[in-house]
Design a protein that fits this description.
binds S-adenosylmethionine; 9 strands
């Protein structure tokens, strides 16, 4: 099957009208279905900056692009994370849930694979960008939605999954509280996310290296922009504060991957810090050299935290 996603030369993404205007969709409250219907054209007017294409709905609120290169990167990242998590899409102990929500679904690859593996489960993936394919399993739907707005789903979910929202979320406590509110009693929420602080266990990542300078500036710029680049270590505490019980947290090490360098950096450095595009490229060329240097062992951590909503919570 041909990849239905557009290239960067085709700025208009074909949103599936059934998904954006289906007012009979039982997963959504009435307000949301009208709201999304009125957005179908404006959500496709994607701005382009430094030759990268960005989301249009809530323009400027998310720092990574949504073009073909970024969508490919997200799909590759999905495969890497699956290997890291021993081929498991979820770590929480849930069997054949009825309804699953995937918050900030990206290309929808997680939702589609979960839907393929669980044909009796209804899966809804939400995102600021309608960049998901339209040929998907019949039990999988996608919706444009800002997860930082008050949630208006009509029904609660057996599982809520949110992966890799580092640098995306302004208010993590509210996000996790809304997940608690919309998890069914006895159901689970699972957050999987990064701590983007780089370190080395053998002292080879030193402060004079371009990679260390780059990540330090990037983390500060993300924080200046009001987006936590390191939610991973906070997840367990956020879930406890929201009311989840039976929490479990795990952490894995990752080595740096090169394919997202521009995506991570361009908007933060040019828009937030005022760097020129050429200056960013010079820094990134040096960062690439460091990343390819086998003598530098830089790594960072990925966290998975899940928790159960108590049976007696409403
Ligand atoms: C780094 S990607 C991860 C995508 C997917 N969760 C995965 O792991 O493959 C983050 C996604 O969150 C989406 N996003 C960012 N802010 C959002 C918001 N406020 N509401 C919904 N989605 C959001 C972005 O559009 C992007 O697709």
């Amino acid at each position: 099957m041909a990849d239905p996603r557009p290239t960067t030369n085709e700025p208009a993404i074909e949103a599936d009208p059934e998904l954006t205007t289906d007012e009979s969709d039982s997963t959504l409250g009435d307000d949301v279905s009208c709201y999304t219907a009125s957005l179908t054209s404006s959500i496709q007017r994607y701005p382009v900056e430094n030759n990268r294409r960005y989301h249009a709905y809530k323009d400027g609120s998310y720092i990574l692009p949504n073009d073909e290169a970024e969508l490919d990167r997200l799909d590759v990242t999905h495969q890497k994370l699956k290997i890291l998590l021993q081929d498991k899409l979820l770590r929480c102990p849930v069997q054949n849930p009825g309804r699953v929500l995937d918050v900030g679904t990206g290309t929808g690859i997680w939702a589609i694979e979960y839907g393929d593996d669980h044909p009796d489960t209804e899966i809804l993936g939400t995102d600021l960008s309608p960049t998901q394919p339209s040929w998907v399993p019949p039990n999988v739907k996608f919706e444009v939605d800002d997860c930082e707005e008050p949630w208006t789903f009509r029904d609660k979910f057996d599982v809520i999954h949110a992966r890799y929202l580092a640098t995306a979320i302004a208010d993590w406590p509210t996000l996790v509280s809304q997940a608690f509110q919309f998890t069914k009693p006895g159901g689970y929420s699972e957050f999987q996310d990064y701590d983007l602080v780089y370190y080395s266990e053998d002292g080879t990542l030193t402060d004079d290296l371009a990679i260390q300078k780059w990540i330090t500036i990037l983390l500060q710029a993300a924080r200046d922009f009001g987006r936590d680049p390191c939610p991973g270590p906070r997840l367990a505490g956020l879930m406890r504060d929201a009311g989840f019980q039976n929490k479990t947290v795990g952490a894995w090490n990752l080595v740096q991957i090169e394919d997202g360098l521009e995506a991570f950096t361009l908007r933060l450095f040019t828009q937030v810090l005022g760097w020129k595009s050429d200056e960013v490229q010079v820094l990134l060329a040096n960062v690439r050299k460091d990343l390819r240097n086998p003598k530098i062992h830089a790594q960072f951590d990925f966290f998975v935290a899940y928790g159960q909503k108590p049976m007696d919570a409403s």
